[in-house]
Specification:
GPI-anchor biosynthesis, 0% strand, mainly alpha, 492 residues, transmembrane helix, membrane
Length: 492
């Protein structure tokens, strides 16, 4: 971690994995950072600023009072204390809904996918005498295990994006940066952030595999990769609704494919093509009719990740209910419980510019570094001002092949910028802005951007200093946020 924050490029080049075991090096760094964060959580005194967790555990028969806890062994007491420190804020909703199912409307604001998975794990593999503690333990284990695998997936995703000119150092530093993500303890608690990142990054990895190679040689393997990526994005959406933003990639590809089909049919004049943005015009050549159809299927799978839980909620609240007892949202043109809950229960804070109040200014300041990183890296990728640097090659044939691979890599990279930019804009204008620090853990582009800034030999001192301070901020924010989270203090 210390070497990551050095401003000198030559010092940064020393940060490299073992040539034989990069994943082992990442795992050791991961364990060290998690031990620090979990140690901060365990050291948090008392029940915290809010007593909700203690009341929640006592209500469900998971008493954490000293007299009860002293009857258990040291490991059991530490596990119980850790659960008490990590079941904070939204985690109370997730674990409660996982233990006894959804009862109240507002609980449907919290991902159906995570609560269902945790409920099944606690049912199939009990770890204690308390069903609620079982859910909490499984949530904590799932979060940490998912985060570790996410780090490995990000390593391979970076290698895939850099293709033949892959520099193992870029992949290693990108993955290492995700370990110290500003999401901090949210990636260790019963929250959906870690499993969401795992599904999202794996979806990006399959999308990258589908899009690599000669577009004219699109085969069944590419179809399968693309459909799998859509299915993974859909599963991620069952955990967090912002997974739906990955559908923007499929929508973009569908537009590019439609333009190519219409152009081939002579329905788009050549003169009209000149008005299409250059990036989109370049991507048109990569997407034929077959890929267009596969893209539509993948896009539908992404949408099902959002529609599926809405239908389950509709069956619970609207189907078979007397007319007098039917909730208001059931009679809407689009009966979505999620949109109803957001507008009805959080109407004062959720929506365009509703969060823009003077009292929320400190939260905007906290979110500013993450917003700047996500928005700037996405904009630079979309405008072509930042991209992965191709290798230096000698032969003409090698130059041609490298240029082709670099062009495809750049095409994939700017697609990954689309959902990240959408999230940054909506977080700034319509969300509780502070959540961007944890939602950023599910979007890989800004980690890759920061890694390239750290590792490029040609980086000026100013750029190196900026990267150094960014990494220091990530470490400090993770530690401070962890202490506040464990004490049930904002921001959350």
């Amino acid at each position: 971690l210390r070497q990551l924050t050095q401003p000198e490029a030559r010092t940064m080049f020393r940060l490299r994995p073992s040539s034989h075991a990069p994943l082992a090096s990442l795992a050791l760094l991961f364990i060290a950072w998690k031990l620090v964060l979990l140690g901060v959580a365990l050291a948090s005194p008392g029940e915290g600023y809010d007593s909700s967790t203690g009341l929640w555990m006592r209500w469900w028969g998971a008493d954490t009072s000293p007299c009860t806890a002293s009857d258990s062994g040291l490991v059991a007491r530490l596990a119980r204390r850790l659960a008490q420190r990590l079941v904070r804020w939204d985690a109370i909703y997730y674990t409660t809904s996982a233990q006894r199912g959804y009862v109240y409307e507002q609980e449907w604001a919290f991902g159906w996918g995570l609560t269902t998975l945790l409920g099944k794990l606690a049912e199939w593999l009990p770890l204690s005498s308390s069903p609620l503690l079982d859910v909490a333990y499984h949530g904590i284990f799932l979060a940490n295990a998912s985060h570790l695998v996410t780090v490995f997936v990000l390593y391979y995703l970076t290698l895939s994006l850099t293709q033949r000119h892959a520099d193992q150092r870029i992949a290693f530093v990108t993955a290492a940066l995700h370990i110290i993500s500003p999401a901090g303890l949210f990636l260790a608690a019963p929250y959906p952030e870690a499993p969401f990142a795992l599904l999202n990054f794996t979806g990006y990895l399959f999308y990258s595999h589908a899009s690599s190679g000669d577009p004219s040689a699109w085969a069944l393997k590419n179809d399968a990769y693309l459909i799998i990526s859509g299915a993974l994005f859909g599963l991620a959406t069952t955990l967090r609704s912002n997974g739906l933003f990955c559908g923007v990639i499929m929508f973009y590809d569908a537009i590019a494919g439609s333009i190519r089909v219409l152009e081939g049919l002579g329905l788009i004049p050549t003169t009209t093509m000149s008005y299409i943005p250059s990036k989109l015009r370049d991507d048109v050549r990569y997407i034929g009719l077959r890929r267009l159809l596969t893209t539509v299927i993948a896009g539908v799978l992404v949408g099902l990740g959002f529609v599926g839980p809405q239908y389950i909620a509709w069956k619970q609240f609207c189907s078979g209910t007397s007319e007098d007892e039917v909730p208001v949202w059931c009679n809407r043109q689009i009966p979505s419980i999620y949109t109803w809950v957001q507008t009805h229960y959080w109407q004062e804070n959720v929506g365009p510019f509703k969060y823009w109040t003077l009292s929320n200014l400190p939260l905007f300041l906290l979110a500013t570094p993450t917003l700047l990183l996500m928005a700037s890296s996405a904009c630079l990728a979309l405008t072509g001002q930042w991209s992965l640097t191709p290798p230096t090659v000698e032969t003409h044939r090698a130059k041609v092949e490298a240029a082709k691979e670099f062009d495809q890599s750049s095409s994939i990279t700017h697609r990954l910028a689309l959902p990240q930019l959408v999230l940054a804009i909506l977080a700034l204008t319509s969300f509780h802005v502070q959540v961007i620090t944890r939602l950023s853990s599910g979007y890989p582009l800004w980690y890759l951007f920061l890694a390239t800034v750290i590792l490029q030999r040609s980086t000026e001192a100013k750029g190196a200093s900026w990267a150094s301070w960014t990494v220091k901020w990530m470490i400090m924010y993770g530690l401070i946020q962890g202490a506040l989270f464990a004490a049930f203090l904002p921001p959350a």
